[in-house]
Amino acid sequence: MVTVRDAAFDVFRRLGMTTIFSNPGSTEVSLLTDLPDDLDFVLGLHEASVVGIATGHAIAAERAALVILHTTAGLGNAVGALATARVNRTPLVVIVGQQDRRHLAFEPFLAGRLAQLAGDYPVWVDEPVRPQDVPGSIARAWHEAMIGHGPALVIVPMDDWLAPAGEVEQAAPVRMLVGRSPRPESVTEVAELIDASSHPLLVVGAGLDSIAGWEGATALAERLGCAVYQESFGARAGFPQDHPQFAGHLPAGRSRLRAALAPYDLVVVIGAPVFRQYPYEDGTLVPAGTSVVVVTDDNSEASRSPADLAVLADPAEFAQKLAVQVSVRHGTTAVPHRVERPAPAQHGVPLRAAHVLAALSDRLAPNTIVVEETPSSRPDLHKLLPAREPLGFVSAAMGGLGFAMPAAIGLKMAAPERPVVAVLGDGSSLYSIQSLWSAARYDVGALFIVLANGRYAIMDRLAEKEDTGPAPWPAFEEVSVSGLATNLGCPIARAADISELTEILDEIIPTLSTRKSPLVLEVAVKAGRDFQA
Hints:
Elements: H1 4-14, E1 19-22, H2 29-32, E2 40-43, H3 47-61, E3 65-69, H4 71-87, E4 92-98, E5 124-126, H5 134-148, E6 151-157, H6 184-196, E7 200-204, H7 211-224, E8 228-230, E9 246-249, H8 254-261, E10 266-270, E11 291-296, H9 299-303, E12 309-312, H10 315-325, H11 353-361, E13 369-373, H12 378-384, E14 393-394, H13 404-414, E15 420-425, H14 426-429, H15 435-441, E16 447-452, H16 457-466, H17 481-487, E17 492-495, H18 498-508, E18 519-524
Parallel strand pairs: 1-2, 1-3, 3-4, 4-6, 5-6, 7-8, 7-10, 8-9, 10-11, 11-12, 13-14, 13-15, 15-16, 16-18, 17-18
Helix pairs in contact: 1-5, 3-4, 3-13, 6-10, 7-10, 11-18
């Protein structure tokens, strides 16, 4: 007898979802025991880490990853990570277990009110009416995730898996061709606006983070000779950040944003929202006399953009076609982007985070994937570790902590040939420290550099800025990230000064393309403001 489970496995295979990321419970046992040899299972010790690993895998593989979660507690633990996946525009197919269909009416033990638990962060949620509808629902979820660039949920009662599949209905297309090729007239209109402007500016974002996107953005910028800014809180880089026309990241406050945009009469934003800010400040986003054009393939992003013109189209293809149509400008209006390095660290003197980042910048290969989750040091990371190839920078656009460590694992799983380095604060690392067990268990050769100052440095800075009295949260200097990593089976190293740091980096970094075991490098850094402040 062909069961619903058998039919679902066929859907997994057809759609390329042969790796299952999960922290299962009893409602998933009938699905997961005795898996076929061609399906791989990756265990995470917490649901947020499971979703984070799957998110990293989907980003690198450029296709939806499969996640299986356990009813209310499992989905509830994963909601923050699902929100990050949505804002990072990452496709996931998420199957959530439910109690036995035959007594759901009585709300038995482990029954969940699941459809609304993740709010509107999923791009699609389905509760199949019959067991036989489950395979088709999973197939549709894959298409919904890929089209909607986010997590799609299918809620499946535990008894459905072993029910007879019956005559399997074709409830979703076998293949779907999706394209948002720019309309020629839209490209022409934007080209004419640029040609009519005296000082255009290009702003890029995560929507251009591909080989085609970088090529299109670079060609456009070089024809215009204009400065190029990266969006403020982007999850990925949309332009080579070592290019001479790269001017840095847009400020996150309105007053500084207006000052940055003041020299330009036209701002063309491609593959980025317009404009994400934090914290709130009074005043307009752009100065008077500056027009804004936004090009995005995200419906909601286009609809909420405070732009003079929004174009819904594939960002990479639009940039490529726009580069062909705009007139070549001789000379350049680019703003010089100077990178100030910290003063050299002295032997025996406590390190700053910027010293660690500078040491990395001297050693990392251009194709390294840098995964960031160090809020207090992010400006320095942007300056010292520019993205030099597509997928060179990955972060959580949502802003919540707990993403970088599991995401780095998934990224390395899907792109084993590339070096992967996660740079985290020690406070950030504690949100998903259990994911190190998965890295060790599945031989994932990522490097996790933990900048350890024993406190939430970004929170301390924000409290100082408010100047309303002392903050109530204590330091946690007694917490040893390397000790926790050791207990989770992950190899560790420690560095307390520049000599120890450079010795370890010189040994480890050349191995990152081929190594099969993770490493946590805990670096003691001095709390306080780094050199850029």
